[in-house]
Amino acid sequence: MTEDLTLGAREVPLGGLRGLTVHRTLPQKGFPTVGAWCFVDHFGPTSHSMAVLPHPHTGLQTVTWPIAGEIRHRDSLGSDVVLKPGELNLMTSGDGVSHSEFSVGDPDAPMHGIQLWVALPSDALEGPAGFEHHPDLPVASGDGWTAKVLLGELGGATSPATTYTPIVGAEVTLDHGTATLPLRPDFEHAILAVDGPVVVDGVEVAHRELRYLAPGRAAVGLQVPRATTVLVIGGEPFDEELVMWWNFIGRSHDDIVLARDDWQAAAERFGRVDGHDGQVIPAPPLPEVRLTPRRRSVT
What we know:
Layout (H helix, E strand, L loop, with lengths): L4 E3 L2 E5 L5 E7 L10 E10 L4 E7 L2 E9 L1 E6 L4 E4 L4 E5 L4 E8 L6 E9 L10 E5 L4 E4 L2 E10 L2 E2 L8 E8 L2 E6 L5 E6 L4 E3 L2 E3 L4 E4 L5 E6 L3 E8 L7 E3 L2 E3 L2 H12 L35
Antiparallel strand pairs: 1-21, 2-3, 3-4, 4-11, 5-10, 6-9, 6-11, 7-8, 7-10, 9-12, 13-14, 14-15, 14-16, 16-23, 17-22, 18-21, 18-23, 19-20, 19-22, 24-25
C-alpha cells in the first residue's frame, strides 16, 4: 500500500514554449492518480495571460478553477462562457471534445488558478460530451476552516457538479493557527499548498507541493502561520489502468493513436470551436515506443 508522501512541482509551459508557465504536481513518474484525479496544474500568480487555442480531449473531465483573473471558455458543444474567480467550469470529454481558453477582462489583472483532470471510468468513456458552468458552489465550515466544494462532498456540503466515481475536490481557506479537516477513511487524498506553506499532520509542505494521504484516516490536522488557501482532492483509489498522452486518456496504445489520427484529420468526434478562424493546436508526434499504462510504483 502507498504511504503518505510529498510530491514536488515541475514547471511546464502551457500552450507552447512562450506560453503560461504552470506548476504540475500530478501525474508524476510512478504516481499517476489520487482517486480519479490524474492531472493538477497550478498557475500564477502571474501577469502572463492565458492563450490556449482549440485542442482535443478524450477519457476525462477538465476542472478549471480560477483564483484571480477571468478565462473565456469556448468548446465544440457551442459553450461560450467567461469564467470568474470562485466559479467552476467542468467539461466532460466522453469520446471526444475540443475547447479553447483565453484570458479576458482587465489586461493588468494577475492570473492565478488551478486546472485539473479527472479520469473517466470505462463505462463513461463512450458517453456524450458535456459542459457545466457552476457560478455558485456550496460552502462547508468548521473550527478554523471554510471550504468551497467543487466536486463531491465535504463537511456536509455537496457540489452539484457531475461526477462518475466517488470523489471530492474543495478549495479550503485556513485561518491562522491549526484546524482539523474531516476526511472519508475510504478515500485517498492530497493537499496542494496553493499560496504558502502548510503543515499537514506534522509534515511541512512547501508552497506548490502536493501532500498525498493514504486511505484510512477520518481527519487531517493542518497548521498555517497566516490565513492560507489549500486545495483538497481525493477519491476512492482508481483501479483502472490509464494510458495518458498529450491531451488524451485511453486504455491502450491503440486508443491514443486513433484519437491523435482523428484530431489531425479534423474528425467529427472532436467537433469545431468557433471564433478561431480554424486555428487549432496540432498534436505532437507520437513517441517511437508503444505507450503503456501508467502504474503507481512510488510507495
